[in-house]
Known about the structure:
Strand order of the largest sheet: 1-5-2
CATH architecture: Alpha-Beta Complex
Radius of gyration: 19 Å
Largest sheet: 3 strands, antiparallel
Amino acid sequence: MGKRKKIAADARxxxxxxxxxxxLQNCPSSPRKMRYVVDLVRGMEVNRALGTLKxxxxxxxxxxxxxxxxxxxxxxxxxxxxxxxxxxxxTKIFVNExxxxxxxxxxxxxRGYRIRKRSNHITLFVDTKND
Length: 131
């Protein structure tokens, strides 16, 4: 690794030290459905986001709520203190497409229709607002 790349990598690593993050991989729902829920809470304060996710009617909101609780716990572990009310915010959250399982469904006249069972990966970062 060149010196310039090493300096940039060290700077990125230092910036991520104070952040709490969590990943959920291979979540068995389509990325499009998950993005509806993720767009609801992007940039919110974590307590408000937890309330929004708890009362959201979408099934994907339970996965995002569990992931958010994990990211908060990771932040508390890194900083060795409890998060105060109104301190933590969701800085970044995004959904990427995961592996797709291809299945066949019987169709009329001896044909078969292909079914794609999609999955996704969610990454969530929490940090304090003043950074």
